[in-house]
Specification:
five-stranded parallel sheet; Rossmann fold; 11 strands; alpha/beta; two-stranded antiparallel sheet; single chain; Helicase, Ruva Protein, domain 3; 322 residues
Amino acid sequence: MSVRTEIQHLQNFVSTRIIGQKVLVNRLLIALLADGHLLVEGAPGLAKTRAIKVLGEGIEGDFHRVQFTPDLLPADLTGTEIYRPQDGSFRFQQGPLFHNLVLADEINRAPAKVQSALLEAMAERQITVGRETYKLPEMFLVMATQNPIEQEGTYPLPEAQLDRFLLHVRITYPQGQEEKAILALARTEAHRDAANPGTGARRVSQATIFAAREEVLDIHMAPQLEEYLIQLVLATRSPGAYGKELAQWVQYGGSPRATIYLDRCARAHAWLNGRDFVGPEDIQALAPDILRHRLILNYEAEAEGITPDTVIGELIARIAVP
């Protein structure tokens, strides 16, 4: 069975268990193939936790969920040194970050020290405890969630940490027919779990995922499309060239990480759609999720109700497609 077929089976498995969130399922797989982390924002009950848990059931790897709270400590993520009285030594006890898939639930409820520990893990794929540094698993993905409804008692994520996220995905409620399908699935799963507890799916190996990543990197991107991608990111830094009002809204644009990540995600998007080349639609589909958390707007834009998505949409509409 080919690598692409294996990943398609994984995609189908997750899609049948997560109804009404096609974008979330697609972005989770893109993050897996592009070797990055994603920030998901949506109201409670929209299958954010379930999505990454189901993904963990479909691949060879371990999953761990961490509920972020104001009293969380860095050691609750990284692990800590445990004293052994029998021989007077210390032994390092690994924390949740040593799992392959980590869900940081309501990430903005934890204080700065915890965010710093997570930032090192996301950026360097390692954690430091005392004088020792420990490598994290080669396949390591953090999915963080934010609740947009309640902001009381939260700590806004610093821009440096936001920039480490590959994607910032916003999800909404499912439609009527999807809601009906969700209800039917819930009943089916309740019966199945009662009859066959512990039943699992065939799991995709980590070797297959690494091979898929190599195939994604080999996807062809025409030079003119690469230039289009670069111009799209550059336009967020100098938006005045595409409209005087855009220059009045944007304070800071996307970093070079935006260029790198948009390139990798566009390739992954094309690969998941069965193509061996990148088209303009791949770049345009991923641009909002790549750029929305990297654009910093000024007070004037906020006063006018302008959002990063507004700016990104205007740039996509005004920059010529090759």
